[in-house]
Amino acid sequence: MGFCSLVVKDPHPPKPNVQLSVHDRGAAEAQRHKWIESEKAGRDLGEWAIRCWVRQHWNGFLREKWLEHLEGRTFWIELDHDDFGLLDRSFDDSELITAIVQRLKAGQENLDILNWAIVDNQNMEEIFLILEVLDMNSRRIECLLEARLAYLL
After folding, report:
1. Which tens digits make up the pLDDT trace of 36-61?
2. Exposure on the CB side of residue 42, measured as CA atoms within 13 A
3. What's the burial of 72, exposed, middle or buried (CB within 10 Å: 0-12/13-18/19+)?
């Protein structure tokens, strides 16, 4: 197993023409959730359904959008602009990045990935480097939907 060196081909990639908002897309998803749950209940569940979506789905939704951003598929304006397409610009010689991204897509956290790496006897130095560069924990952002709801009340 070789050691992966961080190779950033272009540290400041150009911003794509289409730029989307995680908060706007999240609000649309929360409204869709509200509609579906209200239809099931036979009445408008209103703010309760929005808050429910935030508690149950925001973190997974944000993770999915963050990974799209890292892969260079969708530019989300609230996420670090320099992270857009990072996976294509970095880790050229890494055999582990694909396995790590798959685990992130499955909802695993850093500790889960470290446990997997230890059990499977992976190159821990490379694992630490990848997790440090991705810096998942600092990329979490607060959902603004609940704050918007509080403002409207």
Report:
1. 999 999 999 999 999 999 999 999 99
2. 0
3. middle
